[in-house]
Amino acid sequence: MPHLDFTQPPFDVLSAAERQSIKKNTQVRYLAKDETLSTDDLQYFYVVLKGHVEQLLDGTFVTSYLGSNHTDHLNNNDWFDSRRLPKPMIEDGLQESDLQKDTDINELIMPYQFRAVEDTLLLQVNGTAIDKISAQNYLVRQLVSENLPERLKALQLRRSGQHLDAASYDDQQEVQQIMLQPVIDITLLPVHIVGADDNLYQAARTMTEAGLKHVLVRPTGYLQDKDSFDRTLGILTDNDICRAVSDQKNPATTPCQGYASFHLRTIDADDDIGDALLTMTRYRIHRLPVIDANGKVIGVLGQSDMLAHIGHHSQLISIQIEQATDLPSLATAVELIGRYIRAQYQNGIKMGNVSRMVQTLNAQVFTKLWQLIVPDEVMENTCVIVMGSEGRGEQIMRTDQDNALIIRDGFTHPELARFAETFNQHLANLGYPLCEGNIMMTNPMWRQPLKPFKAQISAWYKNTDPIHSIYLSAIFDGEYVCGDESLLIQIREHLKTAHRQSDLMFVRQFARAALQFGDINQWWQKLVPLLGGKPISYTIDLKKAGIFPLVHGIRTLALENDIFTDPSSKGRLKALVQARALTQERADTLLEALEFFMAQRLSVALSTDNKHAQEVDPRTLSALERDLLKECLAVVKSFKGQLSRQYQLEIG
Amino acid sequence: MRMNWLKKLSVAWQKNQLQRPELASMFAMPAPEQWVAIDCEMTGLNPKKHHLLSVAAIHINGDKIDTGNGLHLLCRPPVMPKSDTIVIHGLRTADVEHAMSYDEMLSLLLPFIGNRPLVGFFPQIDVGFLNPLVKRYMGTHLPNEVIDIRSLYSRRMMGRSQGLPSQAQHLNSILKHYNIPELGTHDAYNDAIMTAMAFLHVR
User: Fold this and answer.
1) Which parts of the chain span the membrane according to its record (chain A) (predicted)?
2) Which of A1, A30, A120 sits opposite B186 (nearest CB)?
3) Buried b (16+ CB within 10 A) or exposed e, A333-349
4) What is the reported pLDDT for A157?
5) CATH architecture of the domain with range B14-147
6) pLDDT band for position A75 (50/70/90)?
7) pTM assigned to the model
8) Which of A110, A175, A330, B95 has the least C-beta neighbours within 10 A?
9) Which residues between 99 and 138 in chain A have a beta carbon less than 8 angstroms from any beta carbon of chain B?
10) pLDDT over 90 percentage in chain A
11) A511-647 adopts what CATH topology?
């Protein structure tokens, strides 16, 4: 006689008392082929023991739930809460104010129907019993939550491979989310400010009394009114005083102005530790002033305090790259990046943090390599950028290199072509495969002075060839690596201008690509068992089904809203929320879904040692992953729907 | 264990009926400290109306249960299970329609149980389902001694507490009494293991 298996999620996190209570409230239920659950049955939580149930809305297929006969895993049965109601279609990025909460809305919502595709055996648990337990057990609540980000968190927690139980959850959580904690969780150094006109002697005294190795400097002409931000502050360190002394300056008469550094990198109080680490790594700085919502500095984040807080080793890789003097030593550092990715993944660190850190480290590798290849004058008169997923900071496995070289107008060097060739070749040797579409600086089209580069971009906006959209997508995602950053800034400026001058139809054409791959929900419908045998194996291409439509859709919205500064999907979403083009909630969901696909893709790639692997067979996933995969595919589907309504792309 | 003359006689007569000489060893005197735990899943309790769906058998040698080398066989019944009983045994049409025939099942099961005494919880039911099939297959019923752990348990509990014989009707109460762990799904194999564990306690 089948009964509840407590090693099966979501029941594997219950206490003994909770198990008893669930047991009492569980029955076994059988549905013959084609039988549906009646309205009275929609008050239960179901686990599919054997068989196959499909969920329909108004007769249209939504998704499927599979029993153990469809998977090779133990304890991998799908579950569903039949009480969940379809969400009303709130997906067009409307602001909350536009949504009149209508009391009748719930009465208008038709519930889902559940139909057995084959003879099916179910466990049915009283909904109220599940509610009672999830009210007191956080882990269950996460697993059966209606809210996608909650369930994704549950998956991450499980990924970390540590033993789950409610008691140890707090410690777990701390390890998991360490990169997501706000920077203000770290003890900040106190703020001491001197004026730029104050002399070095006063600054040194302030430091000594405060026991600090730095002091903040307020620039001359600073007015204390509400429009001035502390972001204009400078910093003076013990190092600067040392320089002044070795310049034989008299500390008592020399103002701080000449030795302080201004235009500091700062960080916001609500940024997370991952962001701070990234900024420090990327710009190789040791101190970050922390600015609150009012633009006031509330403390200084010191690198050593932060490292002590996280005990993380991306910094060490960074140092390795920094110290590399030739290709072999650089290759060692690149090897470390690979190991770092694996470790981060196994620790259940959030994908977005891993990928952005990897982007930063890769950018350092590229910088170092470029330095090793070219003389200083080339470095100063050109700008190296990376594009595509590397530019967006969303490439984790080194799948290919997309890069370009922007040259200052009027600058020439006879060896440029050879440098570019060497750069691409060396990167390939380091394990960044050559780009098959030849979007690399060795291709003259991607190695041009500013003016022709801009002309080229304008020509692409005419969109006379489908490849032009691909080129534009690449350059939209361009991110600075090294050289003269202003060259990239001018390219971005031109992307905006050229877009304004382009045909109004351009954005529609551009958006269309997001819909080019079919609806993957077909997958669950195709899952029909062969006569007396196993179902045919179908896999889902994570890139086509998930990553690409999300990335390209977000890219299109960013283009339309003139968002060019931060090409990462996360940055674009943030800016789209600020531009009120999307609600915060919608943006969060899109980002969560994207990161889920990226994590799945990484997991496939790590398990096969084929870094191009992006196909996943849903039957090989855990029930929780499969549930989330479905949910995230549903997010993609609704996003495509939003795009096609917004850009009138009725798919013929 | 000594066989009395009547038993010897009936064994001899049964052996006479045996149509499959290769199974003659089933009639030999069992070795000491060897048993086989069995459990079946059926579509109901009446051998005239219902059908066998699966059989599990596991050797018990001394105080060891040979869980790794047991048999767990699914059979194709002449009539497919009805929905009211599927929720009890969990075997759907799809699970048994491509399963083995009863004869195939017996060709594996009988050599496996050999001359060992059968240990079960209310094994008369299981044997009641097996015997008609066995008779058709080899000409005689199962010659094995049958041990019901319910009666061993009742004998154990005699005078220790009240009202036990009726309670002993439930395998669960025996399992609980000896703190025997619930093994995952209730299929024939897991039930046979739990029966074997209970047997080691009550023998």
Assistant:
1) none
2) A1
3) bbebbeebbeebbebbb
4) 67
5) 2-Layer Sandwich (3.30)
6) low
7) 0.57
8) A110
9) 118-121
10) 29
11) Four Helix Bundle (Hemerythrin (Met), subunit A) (1.20.120)
